[in-house]
Write a structure and sequence with these properties.
This protein has 120 residues and is mainly α. It has a two-stranded antiparallel sheet. The relative contact order is 0.15. The protein is elongated. Strand 1 and strand 2 form a beta hairpin. It starts with a helix and ends in a 12-residue tail after the last helix. Helix 1 packs antiparallel against helix 2. The chain is built from 3 helices and 2 strands, in the order αββαα.
């Protein structure tokens, strides 16, 4: 893969990384229990003065944020891994066969680890 193509995919991945981070920051925070994990959060409420409906709404919001977090966190990890592959000059190489991953596959999914033949 030439340098221009690598810069193109790196730009796409960095853009996706920033978007994912922004969205994750709006629904979660870094967990104090583990170094590489987040936990879902909600907007703060004053529990003492909150009514039952407000508390129920917060629990619902927390559950929704957990579902979003469970979907986005793996995506962020895939983007991180792809950026590492670029840095290590392993990007665009199928992890199964060692062959080049097709450009149209990388264009559709810049985090792809395998060629079309070895897709799951």
């Amino acid at each position: 893969m030439n340098k221009k193509d690598l810069e193109h995919y790196k730009f796409k991945l960095e853009k996706e990384y920033a978007l994912l981070e922004e969205e994750l920051d709006s629904i979660s925070r870094e967990s104090s229990n583990t170094s590489n994990h987040r936990e879902a959060t909600t907007a703060d409420i004053e529990i003492d003065s909150a009514d039952e409906n407000e508390v129920a709404d917060k629990f619902e919001e927390l559950e929704e944020n957990k579902m979003i977090l469970d979907r986005l966190e793996p995506q962020l990890n895939e983007v991180k891994a792809a950026l590492i592959r670029i840095k290590e000059e392993k990007y665009g190489i199928c992890e199964v066969s060692g062959e080049k991953i097709e450009k149209e596959r990388l264009e559709a999914s810049p985090t792809a680890r395998t060629c079309k033949k070895h897709m799951k």
